Amino acid sequence: MTPEEILGQLQQRFGPAITEAEVKGVEVRATVKPEVAWDVCRFFRDAGFEYLNCLSGADWTTHLEVVYDLSSLQQTPKAHLRVPVNRDTPTIRTVTDIWPAANWHERECYDLFGVRFDSHPDHRRILLPEDWVGYPLRKDYADERMVPYTEYGMEEKLAKAEGEKPAVKAVPRPAPVQPAPPPTPAPEPREPS
Amino acid sequence: MSEIHMPIPVGTTVVVERTDETMEEMYVNMGPQHPSTHGVLRLMLKLDGEYITDCVPYVGYLHRCHEKIGENRNYTQVIPYTDRLDYLASMSMNFGYVLAVERLMGLAVPPRAEYMRVILAELQRIASHLIWLGTFGLDLGNFTIFIYCFREREMVLDLFEAVSGQRLNYSFYRIGGMAMDFPETWIEDCRRFLEWFKPRLPEYDALMTDNILFQKRVQGVGILPARTAVDYAASGPMLRGSGIAWDLRRNDPYSVYDRFEFDLPVYDSCDVWARYLVRRQEMAQSVRIVEQALAQLPAGEIQAKVPKTIKPPAGQVYARTESPRGELGFYLISDGSPKPYRYKVRSPAFVNLSVLPEMLKGCLVADCVAVLGSVDIVLGEVDR
């Protein structure tokens, strides 16, 4: 099927739940409401997109987003789906039952963005330690260890430009910031059984 | 008791009459410090006797906040960080990243730079597979292949040092081209290396491929059915070792790969042996590609005209390339500023590692190292 046909079928089936849709080259791009995201993914899987290239998160400050990049080993079209999720209660249904590849990708998205995936078989952090507080890839993540980057020798340069003798001064560390508490307790880690 | 000599199916509870004991599952921890996990990887193995019933990988020991750092750097400043993702294939990491940024900008790269990219990427593929081959053999007890492979790899590293000044972590690709041109005698040196390297491949065959001990250890072990490989989005030699003829250089060509003739090694047996053969043959095919690229190398400039501050237009791109480990994808969101808004690395080793539990179920614990070696992971890329 051509990308245009896929887009046509998609819009026909889901109508207003597809907030944005276009075809760019061989790629079908669509922004999908979170309530129908799983069904849209099922639709794409049935349309032949059996290969989940990438599942990532994005933080748009007003909301979070889960992004799916799909392709097929048999046909040329690709798909790029974006699902905005609520920032305060970021929950979306898992797609591990559609693409098992999503398992680790969703764990990473939870780990770094805090998006909860309903019915995920192994919902726990993957890259950070289990007891980490906070979701680092969010734009509002603050940590006392994040010292701002200043160009080496900048203070001396600025002082010289003004004609003053540069004072030897260390860059002050910012005061320790308490990380924001997580909105809801994380799901129970699954016991290895 | 005539049944005592039949193999016991995995998961059976056996009652030994004499002492009335039952066999239970045992947990064995492998890693994170282990000579054969190729980095800091922890595998929790559940054993039923000597059979592995499940494996739970724990990753993240080498997490270095790569994606968060990328959001706070210029597009050009990110390039040295990409080197350190898969530090054994830095040229390929650079390639994938600059390709993504150029797609975002709609930038055309001069032809000489395109050919340089392919030459260096294929030499990098050879070097990466040499490390893989050497360490894989070492894990299985073949010490000679380790020394031989590293000897050849040193020659590739000498070539890379001549061209970029670095033995590892080259940061040689730039957005719009390359950092520098080849030095004067580099092309002849490269050809001399290829002439030296071509007879070495049969030597490796004599040590490994034709070695009955090696064959017995890897044939029929670590089965990855094609269906599972696609479901778990495995890529690279994992797919080609399961009978799926999929290589991004052939099926979704980027740069100038469509101008070269090379074969795609695909094997059907879905085991460690198949993946071994795929990588072994890929080295020979990379030699072919480098020779053709050197012959076709055009003259000209090596860097397109780019503004001093690279500010791609607002938009997003997912660009994928075939790194030695599989499909390397870079997902970039730009908001028009000099720094990426979102920078995600789709690491082939990360995704390939997620299918390891499926391959290990039913294997003997002694085969765990062989199966893990056949996945060819680099923890820098898995953990970012």
Number of domains of chain B: 2
Round the mean pLDDT of chain A to the nearest integer and report it.
84
What would the principal axes of the Cα set say about the shape of chain B? Answer: globular
**Residues in β-strands, percent of chain A:** 15-25%
Main sheet: strands, sense, barrel of chain A: 5 strands, mixed
Oligomer: heterodimer
Strand segment count of chain B: 10
Strand order of the largest sheet of chain A: 1-2-5-4-3
Q: Features of this protein?
A:
heterodimer, A: 193 residues, alpha/beta, Beta Polymerase, domain 2, five-stranded mixed β-sheet, 22% helix, B: alpha+beta, Cytochrome-c3 Hydrogenase, chain B, 2 domains, three-stranded antiparallel β-sheet, 16 helices, 10 strands, globular
Could you provide a short overview of the structure?
By secondary structure, chain A is of the alpha/beta class.
Structure description:
Chain A has helices at 3-14, 37-46, 102-113, 154-162, and strands at 18-24, 27-32, 51-59, 64-71, 78-85, 91-93, 116-118. With 193 residues, chain A is of the alpha/beta class. Chain A has one domain: Beta Polymerase, domain 2. In chain A, the strands form two sheets. Chain A has a five-stranded mixed β-sheet with strand order 1-2-5-4-3, covered by helices on one side. In chain A, strands 6-7 form a two-stranded parallel sheet. In chain A, strand 4 (64-71) and strand 5 form a beta hairpin. The longest helix of chain A has 12 residues, at 3-14. The radius of gyration of chain A is 22 Å and the shape is globular. The model of chain A has no long low-confidence stretch (mean pLDDT 84). Chain B is globular, with a radius of gyration of 22 Å. Chain B contains 16 helices and ten strands. The mean pLDDT of chain B is 91. In chain B, strand 4 and strand 5 form a beta hairpin. In chain B, helix 5 runs antiparallel to helix 6 (186-197) and helix 12 (272-296) runs parallel beside helix 15. Chain B starts with 14 loop residues before the first strand and ends with a helix. In chain B, the strands form four sheets. In chain B, strands 3-4-5 form a three-stranded antiparallel β-sheet. Chain B has a three-stranded antiparallel β-sheet with strand order 8-9-10. Chain A binds chain B through residues 50-54, 56, 58-59, 67, 69, 73, 80, 99-101, 103-105, 112, 125-129, 136-137, 149, 192, and chain B through 27, 44, 46, 54, 56, 59-60, 63, 65, 67-68, 72, 228, 230-233, 244, 246, 251, 316, 318, 320, 327, 329, 331, 333, 341-342, 344, 346, 350-351, 353-354, 383-384.
